[in-house]
Design goal:
By secondary structure, this protein is mostly loops. The longest helix has 5 residues. It has 1 helix and 2 strands, in the order E-H-E. The termini are far apart.
């Protein structure tokens, strides 16, 4: 079996030899990257204001709002949240605010 393009990236490889941007080399590889490090703002959840309406959960593009089997949310997965703020925009109760990192 040959070496995949994802395995050959190192300091000696030229830009012509690397994988094109956006290429998915293997399934579920996003779990290997802490994309939350890209954030400049982070969402802050106030559980006292939260009515557990679950409007925030389906709009999160990073699946960074954990919820249990009863669709009740808990705090953010900050390892993968990129801080886009969509959750804060859809929350009708002001339970999510954005703060600078």
């Amino acid at each position: 079996m040959g070496v995949s393009r994802c395995e050959i990236i190192n300091v000696d490889v030229t830009w012509q030899d690397i994988s094109p941007g956006g290429m998915i080399c293997e399934a579920a590889n996003s779990q290997n990257f802490l994309t939350g490090d890209w954030r400049v703002e982070k969402p802050v959840w106030n559980p006292e204001k939260c009515k557990q309406c679950s409007l925030c959960f389906p709009v999160c593009p990073d699946n960074s709002i954990p919820s249990n089997e009863n669709a009740q949310r808990s705090d953010f997965d900050y390892d993968h949240c990129k801080g886009c703020g969509v959750c804060a925009k859809v929350c009708p109760f002001g339970a999510i605010t954005m703060e600078a990192e």
